[in-house]
Amino acid sequence: MKGRRFLTLFALTGLTACSAMASSANLPDPSYDAPKSTAHGTETAVLAGGCFWGMQSVFEHVRGVRQVWAGYSGGDANTAHYDDVSDGNTGHAESIKVAFDPAVISYGQLLKVYFAVAHDPTELNRQGPDAGTQYRSEIFYASPEQQKIAESYKAQLSAAKVFDSSIVTLVQPLKGFYPAESYHQDYARIHPDDAYIVINDAPKVARLKQLFPALYQPEQTVVDVQL
Question: Taking CA 26 as the corner, what is the angle to CA 204 and CA 100, rounded to the nearest 5 degrees?
Answer without folding.
Answer: 55
